[in-house]
Amino acid sequence: MPFLPDVLDHGLRIVFCGSAVGRVSAERGAYYAGPGNRFWPTLAAIGLTPRQLPPEAFSSLPSYGLGLTDIAKEAAGADHQLPPGSDDPDALRAKILRFAPEVLAFVGKRPAQAYLGRAADYGRQPETLGPTQLFVLPSPSGAARRYWDDSWWHALARLVP
Fold it and tell me: Which of 18, 37, 109, 140 is the most buried (most CB within 10 A)?
């Protein structure tokens, strides 16, 4: 199963960090490509992209000041399918310190908890990573539909105009 490359660059406003690429996304070779995933429609709805981009356009995100990564780059599947030890918080830390986006936005509580080593509520976190603010968003996955609340996504967009 192929895994997706990071989409990182210097000068980004927001880097979104998920747990790991999902099965459908890995098969399609595109981030957040699963059925019912709200990631791409939400980026447009909150004004971070001028229109809804297709998942296959993920490599164009730096032109909008956005980037993508996952905390588990060597695994794929739903959160409950990820093997123990697949998270690599040290690698994530090194990438974010290198590229220094304004905000690292965790796409769901699981990747935030894996990085922070503690439970995390939605919203801005008290910690920073160098100059980078940390923010936790509800997962846009169709599997997490019952927890969906786009108000946190709107709050993120207001944080980094």
Answer: 18
